[in-house]
Amino acid sequence: AGMNGTAIENFVCVIFNVSFMNCTWHVGRNATEDTQYFLYWRASKKEDVTECQNYIKDNCGRHTGCQFQNVTIENKNAYFLVNGSRKLQLINSTSDYVIVEKLTPPLNVSVNCTEASHRCSIRWQPPRTSHVKKSSCFKYEIVIENK
Protein backbone atom coordinates (compact mmCIF):
# COMPACT_ATOMS: atom_id res chain seq x y z
CA ALA A 1 0.00 0.00 0.00
CA GLY A 2 1.35 3.38 -0.98
CA MET A 3 0.43 6.99 -0.43
CA ASN A 4 -3.07 7.97 -1.61
CA GLY A 5 -3.21 9.77 -4.94
CA THR A 6 0.05 8.35 -6.28
CA ALA A 7 -1.45 5.63 -8.49
CA ILE A 8 -1.98 6.44 -12.15
CA GLU A 9 -5.40 7.57 -13.39
CA ASN A 10 -7.32 7.18 -16.66
CA PHE A 11 -5.41 4.15 -17.96
CA VAL A 12 -6.51 3.44 -21.56
CA CYS A 13 -5.05 1.21 -24.27
CA VAL A 14 -6.02 1.73 -27.91
CA ILE A 15 -5.35 -0.96 -30.52
CA PHE A 16 -5.12 0.31 -34.09
CA ASN A 17 -4.13 -1.15 -37.46
CA VAL A 18 -4.78 -4.60 -35.95
CA SER A 19 -1.44 -5.05 -34.13
CA PHE A 20 -0.28 -1.70 -32.71
CA MET A 21 -1.27 -0.65 -29.20
CA ASN A 22 -0.80 2.66 -27.36
CA CYS A 23 -1.43 2.72 -23.63
CA THR A 24 -1.58 6.06 -21.83
CA TRP A 25 -2.29 7.26 -18.31
CA HIS A 26 -2.26 10.36 -16.16
CA VAL A 27 0.22 10.77 -13.34
CA GLY A 28 -1.34 10.41 -9.88
CA ARG A 29 -2.60 13.71 -8.48
CA ASN A 30 -0.27 13.47 -5.44
CA ALA A 31 2.74 12.08 -7.32
CA THR A 32 5.90 14.17 -7.21
CA GLU A 33 8.28 14.86 -10.10
CA ASP A 34 10.61 12.03 -9.07
CA THR A 35 7.82 9.44 -9.29
CA GLN A 36 8.34 6.87 -12.04
CA TYR A 37 5.79 4.40 -13.37
CA PHE A 38 6.31 1.00 -15.00
CA LEU A 39 3.85 -0.92 -17.19
CA TYR A 40 3.69 -4.72 -17.29
CA TRP A 41 1.24 -6.73 -19.34
CA ARG A 42 0.39 -10.11 -20.81
CA ALA A 43 -2.17 -11.04 -23.45
CA SER A 44 -3.40 -14.13 -21.57
CA LYS A 45 -2.83 -16.00 -18.33
CA LYS A 46 -0.67 -18.48 -20.23
CA GLU A 47 1.88 -15.90 -21.42
CA ASP A 48 4.84 -14.39 -19.59
CA VAL A 49 4.59 -10.86 -18.21
CA THR A 50 6.37 -8.25 -20.35
CA GLU A 51 7.52 -4.77 -19.34
CA CYS A 52 7.06 -1.89 -21.74
CA GLN A 53 10.11 -1.32 -23.94
CA ASN A 54 8.99 1.97 -25.55
CA TYR A 55 7.72 4.41 -22.91
CA ILE A 56 6.07 7.76 -23.66
CA LYS A 57 7.39 10.42 -21.25
CA ASP A 58 6.13 13.75 -19.94
CA ASN A 59 8.21 16.94 -19.47
CA CYS A 60 9.55 15.61 -16.15
CA GLY A 61 10.69 12.35 -17.76
CA ARG A 62 7.97 10.31 -16.05
CA HIS A 63 6.47 7.42 -17.99
CA THR A 64 2.93 8.35 -19.03
CA GLY A 65 2.35 5.74 -21.70
CA CYS A 66 3.76 2.96 -23.80
CA GLN A 67 3.74 1.97 -27.48
CA PHE A 68 3.59 -1.69 -28.49
CA GLN A 69 4.00 -3.37 -31.87
CA ASN A 70 2.89 -6.82 -33.03
CA VAL A 71 0.20 -7.12 -30.36
CA THR A 72 -2.21 -10.05 -30.42
CA ILE A 73 -5.00 -10.42 -27.91
CA GLU A 74 -6.67 -13.77 -28.51
CA ASN A 75 -9.72 -13.15 -26.37
CA LYS A 76 -11.23 -10.42 -24.23
CA ASN A 77 -8.78 -11.00 -21.37
CA ALA A 78 -5.54 -9.06 -21.26
CA TYR A 79 -3.75 -8.32 -18.01
CA PHE A 80 -2.06 -5.01 -17.17
CA LEU A 81 -0.25 -3.70 -14.12
CA VAL A 82 1.20 -0.23 -13.66
CA ASN A 83 3.23 0.34 -10.53
CA GLY A 84 5.70 3.01 -9.57
CA SER A 85 8.56 4.08 -7.38
CA ARG A 86 9.82 7.18 -5.67
CA LYS A 87 12.64 7.81 -3.23
CA LEU A 88 11.57 6.80 0.28
CA GLN A 89 7.92 6.38 -0.67
CA LEU A 90 5.69 3.56 -1.87
CA ILE A 91 3.47 4.25 -4.87
CA ASN A 92 0.02 2.72 -5.22
CA SER A 93 -0.32 0.31 -8.12
CA THR A 94 -3.34 -0.06 -10.35
CA SER A 95 -4.78 -2.76 -12.52
CA ASP A 96 -7.89 -0.89 -13.73
CA TYR A 97 -7.90 -0.32 -17.46
CA VAL A 98 -9.91 0.16 -20.63
CA ILE A 99 -9.03 -1.34 -24.01
CA VAL A 100 -10.43 0.20 -27.19
CA GLU A 101 -9.87 -1.07 -30.70
CA LYS A 102 -10.09 1.38 -33.59
CA LEU A 103 -11.21 -0.74 -36.49
CA THR A 104 -10.06 -0.47 -40.05
CA PRO A 105 -12.80 0.17 -42.64
CA PRO A 106 -14.62 -2.85 -44.11
CA LEU A 107 -12.63 -4.64 -46.81
CA ASN A 108 -13.40 -5.25 -50.49
CA VAL A 109 -16.39 -2.92 -50.70
CA SER A 110 -18.24 -3.27 -54.00
CA VAL A 111 -21.35 -1.55 -55.34
CA ASN A 112 -23.52 -2.85 -58.17
CA CYS A 113 -26.33 -0.62 -59.40
CA THR A 114 -28.88 -1.32 -62.13
CA GLU A 115 -30.68 1.54 -63.81
CA ALA A 116 -33.67 -0.52 -64.82
CA SER A 117 -34.63 -1.53 -61.29
CA HIS A 118 -33.24 1.58 -59.57
CA ARG A 119 -31.51 -0.67 -57.04
CA CYS A 120 -27.99 -1.06 -55.78
CA SER A 121 -26.31 -3.99 -54.12
CA ILE A 122 -23.48 -3.20 -51.71
CA ARG A 123 -21.17 -5.94 -50.45
CA TRP A 124 -18.14 -5.93 -48.14
CA GLN A 125 -16.04 -8.09 -45.85
CA PRO A 126 -15.60 -7.40 -42.13
CA PRO A 127 -12.62 -5.28 -41.08
CA ARG A 128 -9.44 -6.88 -39.82
CA THR A 129 -9.32 -6.97 -36.05
CA SER A 130 -6.90 -8.06 -33.36
CA HIS A 131 -9.27 -10.38 -31.53
CA VAL A 132 -12.87 -10.53 -32.85
CA LYS A 133 -13.29 -13.76 -34.79
CA LYS A 134 -17.06 -13.73 -35.52
CA SER A 135 -18.30 -11.47 -38.30
CA SER A 136 -21.73 -11.50 -36.62
CA CYS A 137 -20.24 -9.27 -33.89
CA PHE A 138 -20.20 -6.30 -36.28
CA LYS A 139 -23.03 -3.89 -37.07
CA TYR A 140 -22.79 -1.59 -40.06
CA GLU A 141 -24.39 1.68 -41.03
CA ILE A 142 -24.59 2.85 -44.62
CA VAL A 143 -25.06 6.49 -45.52
CA ILE A 144 -26.20 7.07 -49.08
CA GLU A 145 -25.89 10.55 -50.49
CA ASN A 146 -27.59 11.51 -53.71
CA LYS A 147 -25.36 14.00 -55.52
UniProtKB/TrEMBL annotation:
<feature type="domain" description="Type I cytokine receptor cytokine-binding">
    <location>
        <begin position="11"/>
        <end position="98"/>
    </location>
</feature>
<dbReference type="GO" id="GO:0009897">
    <property type="term" value="C:external side of plasma membrane"/>
</dbReference>
<dbReference type="InterPro" id="IPR036116">
    <property type="entry name" value="FN3_sf"/>
</dbReference>
<dbReference type="Pfam" id="PF09240">
    <property type="entry name" value="IL6Ra-bind"/>
</dbReference>
<dbReference type="InterPro" id="IPR015321">
    <property type="entry name" value="TypeI_recpt_CBD"/>
</dbReference>
<keyword id="KW-0325">Glycoprotein</keyword>
<keyword id="KW-0675">Receptor</keyword>
<keyword id="KW-0472">Membrane</keyword>
<dbReference type="InterPro" id="IPR013783">
    <property type="entry name" value="Ig-like_fold"/>
</dbReference>
<keyword id="KW-0732">Signal</keyword>
<keyword id="KW-0812">Transmembrane</keyword>
<protein>
    <submittedName>
        <fullName>CSF2R factor</fullName>
    </submittedName>
</protein>
<dbReference type="GO" id="GO:0004896">
    <property type="term" value="F:cytokine receptor activity"/>
</dbReference>
<keyword id="KW-1133">Transmembrane helix</keyword>
<dbReference type="InterPro" id="IPR003532">
    <property type="entry name" value="Short_hematopoietin_rcpt_2_CS"/>
</dbReference>
